[in-house]
Write a structure and sequence with these properties.
The complex is a heterodimer of chains A (220) and B (206). Chain A is mainly beta. Helices cover 15% and strands 42% of the residues of chain A. Chain A has helices at residues 2-16, 36-39, 113-125, and strands at 46-56, 62-72, 77-83, 89-95, 99-104, 131-137, 143-148, 154-159, 165-170, 176-182, 195-200, 206-217. The longest helix of chain B is centred in the first third of the chain and has 19 residues, at 4-22. Classes of the chains: A mainly beta (220), B alpha+beta (206).
Amino acid sequence: MKGRLLALATALLFLSCARLPAIVPVAGADPCGPIEGCRRIFPTGKWQLLHSIEADLPGGRRSVMMGLTVLSSRLRSNRSVIMSLEGFVVFDGEVNQGLKVHRALPPFDSPGFAEGLMEDIRLIFFKPEGATAECGKLMDGSTVCRYINPDGGFVDMVLRSTGTCESRRYDREQRPIRIVRVPADARTGDGMPQTIELTAQGEQTYKLVMTLLEAVPLDP
Amino acid sequence: MINAKIATPSQTVAVLAAAWLLIGWGSSWQELKSAAASVTSLSADFVQEKHMKILARPLFSSGVFYFQSPASLRWEYRAPVRNILLMHDNRMERYVETGNGLTKETGAGLQAMQVVLEQISQWLGGRFDENPMFTASLEPGPKIVLIPKEKAFSRMIHHIDLVLSERPGIIDSVVIYESEDSFTKLVFKNAVLNQPIDAALFRKIS
């Protein structure tokens, strides 16, 4: 029994001491240069984007919905709508200097849902807004640029050797909470992702696979 | 994430399919009831437009539906995301195209959708104005306006307009208003009335 408790305590201690992956500096004028291609996965300008969303939820539940996002990269604003496949709006929220929820039907009206959704939207569609902390290589050889979020957390932009781009978000305690993946073969010629995978870790666990159905450029 | 309330739009679409059988054939509820008695089957293509104030252009969906009296329905979206709703023998199933092909959807929502079958039967019996979900009114135009009775339901759908064509049996549009800024318009075409439909269409997805 004591042994089990010790093992559990050790595991908890290990988890509580989660650290950001180590970055090995690389020589060169612009160590972040290779990441530039990954920055193109973020839409530039104003766009109306429609995705189908396959959601794997806790308890083995699976749901398919549609997500509409109207965004401005310059203003870092967005209006995000979740619809049933029939087109009925179950959630409609907006971030433009502040968060405003226009419509939220159960269960999308739960406390914290809107804030969490908008944080995911920000990670998926907007370049990290914080200062660059450091760039270099991860232990597996992937190129990484680390940003410090205004909330005290971190975002690592990672370019894997396969060409997959990842945005990995860590909270202030340096625990991983979100991973956004865009495979190399899932991007259009101008870099617009056709497929985006988001995995939520930590207190909330779910996975979203977003498939681009329509991208409409809007007047600036 | 899917629950009974989320499934309600599917229910509404299914109910609308049944309602379509009954309109355009009379100017009173009694005439609609009489006309309903002659309908045995119906199939049609449909195009759906989603309008929202924030959209630069509407979102389009399209598909086909089949109905067989008394209560068999296949409502199939073919684009942009293929999904099929099957109702037959008091059972309801839904399949959605995913990365693994057409996948059967499970959840509490399906239980709620069972309720619709009873409602469709009621509508097909011509008891259009007796639907417990809506208050129905027949207006000049001609137009039928459906207003949800329950406050919880009205949070999702404000009202539904069924605008009838001058041609009996045909309607110009079905418009589902969620709010002042958001509505969904369904337009039907290539309707085939009272022709045999393979029963397998209501039981199997292919």
